[in-house]
């Protein structure tokens, strides 16, 4: 995206050429990728934005990405309703141009939240692209076309213009945090939270509960990094509400999110325009970020500020809220991070400590819920091949609360406080709704898979010999539908089980009269 003195922002080239964005999507990107003068960004700036896809668009992702999605943690799955925009913006003085500045952005649009990978990639290719232009992009796309499909749990070695990028891809069961190798999605947590790290536990609660949050920052870079850090702090839980790393007045939800006629929605916004300091002043939780720098000294502890003290974007950095945390403050993590600053511990190591702290806190919170929800699963002995799979039992808030006395977070966390109140609040949040829907889907698919296995273990040919042709044909059609469902929904079924069921179907059909065989062999897939 370049800047034309007469036309304003304009798309200079799109690669690959067959990529299609709607006019509305292109128009939005044109505005958001150009960092307006109020931000004062001279030099190179990288940031990320996120926007809703136009309705009615067809989803076009390769089948290998669907397979990848199944094996990835929920927070790394593709986002079918939104696009991520990864931007490398250059603004430098150039007297040879009428405007006096060279201004151009290289933008990578993706459904994937691979922040670190795409940021690293743009950092590698953008400076050279600004010098060499279109032919260089064609060469970059050629390199990307040769990248192998990502494999969860494996290290990716991705060639890009003579350089090999090495990044890890977490698998579904990964609990380890690597310090040696960055993953495709991670942001520098400590750098982002450093200005407010005395309040990290409260911020974790606010994100967990899906509270409306605004990050006011001096630049799109600080804004987007802080929002992405907030969203990632409840990992391995997925943040299920909307979040906008860099929100502008050009976003289609601008009126919806800034209106005072209704309560602020469950969303995290990152903003830089001073206009928002007044427009979003009624929001209940506001984080004011100054210039993000790695401190050479221990940051001073700053109390939570009252919202009425926030009048402009120039207000002092800090957290502005009247929220009272449910849990007592964990002083140990603060001391550990302060000690790291004093000892000049590398920021990467500080981020690992912080990420591990958030992970353990979230897991302590979610394990009791996982344990209770697992108890809603019917016993395997209740699964009959000749009946529909049994239903999951209903989630009961009262029953769950009763389990906390003996099997609550106190088993894995030493933190004291009102855990019960935190759970009650969480059960009303979009994050619980999204998490529970995901678990319901997983368990329902598991029941379908167990039902398939139960069918495979039956002598279906013998059964068909004892029943009428009509009943046998009905069974064949149902079994074929089961196979189609297993493929369509990617049920967790072994390949051998599916092959065995296909063999059963073929054997049953071959035992039928020729005319029925012809009809059934043409019906569905066999």
UniProtKB/TrEMBL annotation:
<dbReference type="Pfam" id="PF02141">
    <property type="entry name" value="DENN"/>
</dbReference>
<dbReference type="InterPro" id="IPR037516">
    <property type="entry name" value="Tripartite_DENN"/>
</dbReference>
<dbReference type="GO" id="GO:0055037">
    <property type="term" value="C:recycling endosome"/>
</dbReference>
<feature type="domain" description="UDENN">
    <location>
        <begin position="1"/>
        <end position="446"/>
    </location>
</feature>
<comment type="similarity">
    <text>Belongs to the DENND6 family.</text>
</comment>
<keyword id="KW-0344">Guanine-nucleotide releasing factor</keyword>
<dbReference type="InterPro" id="IPR024224">
    <property type="entry name" value="DENND6"/>
</dbReference>
<dbReference type="GO" id="GO:0005085">
    <property type="term" value="F:guanyl-nucleotide exchange factor activity"/>
</dbReference>
<dbReference type="InterPro" id="IPR001194">
    <property type="entry name" value="cDENN_dom"/>
</dbReference>
<protein>
    <submittedName>
        <fullName>DENN domain containing 6A</fullName>
    </submittedName>
</protein>
